[in-house]
Amino acid sequence: MNIAALEALPPAVLVEPVRDAPSNAGQSFGALLDGASAELRRADDAAALVALGRGSIADAAVQRAKADVALEVAAIAASRVSTAVTTLLQTQV
Hints:
By secondary structure, the protein is mostly helical. The protein has one domain (about 25-90). It is built from two helices and no strands. It has helices spanning about 25-50, 55-90. Helix 1 packs antiparallel against helix 2 (about 55-90). The longest helix is centred in the last third of the chain and has 34 residues, at about 55-90. The termini are far apart.
């Protein structure tokens, strides 16, 4: 049984300016969560295709890894925001 080689993967994160960048932190975090949600949807779709016998396990694994990274980035961002807010609330004036 031969396993076919994977195609070249596009970069998981594009480092370039966004034309419609969010105007505040709340919108930025919302966009981050929307991106993570979209990655999860793609991973679930790829897993469903594998279950139906029409998808590649390698593609599903790559999609799941991308979703995991997106969720990890969102979790780290939320943790840092929470720490910053806690620090501000504990500051004595």
